[in-house]
Design a protein that fits this description.
heterodimer; A: 156 residues; alpha+beta; Helix Hairpins; 6 strands; elongated; B: 126 residues; two-stranded antiparallel ribbon; 2 strands; 81% helix; unfolded protein binding (chain B); Prefoldin beta-like protein (chain B); coiled coil (chain B); PFD_beta-like (chain B); protein-folding chaperone binding (chain B)
Chain lengths: 156, 126
Amino acid sequence: MASKESKGPQSQQIDLNTLSVDNLSAVKKQLDEELEHLTQSFQKLRQAQNKFKECINTVKTGLRPGKTILVPLTNSLYVPGTLADTENVLVDIGTGYYVEKSAADAEKFYNGKVENLTKNLTDLEKIVSQKSQNVRVVEDVLRQKVMSSSAQPQEA
Amino acid sequence: MANPQQALQRMTEEFTTLQKELSSVVEARQTLESQLQENRSVQKEFSGLDDDANIFKLIGPVLVKQDKSEAIMAVGGRLEFIEAEITRTEEKIKNIQEKQEKKKIEIMQLQNMVVQQQQQQAQVAA
């Protein structure tokens, strides 16, 4: 029963059965940590994607001429106002830079961002499922090792 | 080495310090990477803009209008800086990893020595 398992694209093939219980636990712990980290990144990307989608909606629906809004002057002080320019918006493109864009361009910009994130998310999803597969295999081997070692105590 | 146990403990402490150092440097490396990505995407966005596009920079709570060329230069400078920082941090990571590896070997040697001594003592006592 020689189950060989490739542990990620970067590492060479190692026969898990040759590893000791301690080593296997260490491998499992490391894989768990990686998985945790990747899942967190996945959620963060999702959040960012939703934020951009919200922006698209706002650009589409929030730019009616003559629309009255409340402008925040401070956290607790608002003054009424109307949108003077419903054609153009200022888009945060990152690192503190804002660019004036037409509504259509802004939508394009956000759509590009969402698309990019979708690509990243699918890539990440593949990696996550690969990793969880690895974790499962390591767990299986670990369980077998523990069971066989408790059946024959103190045998190397 | 008068007291191998003590030496062993000291070395283990040094090893843990190295580990902590490594994780903080790795974290710095990750922060740099995300900054690099963000600046790259800004640069890409700039390159697709018209020359007369209105660019603003957020300074505190105020948006200040900026020239396109000026903004491009600023971002380019930042990218250069971040790239330099990344090579520097990577150098540091390599350095710490090497030190860690050396410590690990030293600790293992010392551990073997301690075990051997204990075995000898046990034989003498027997």
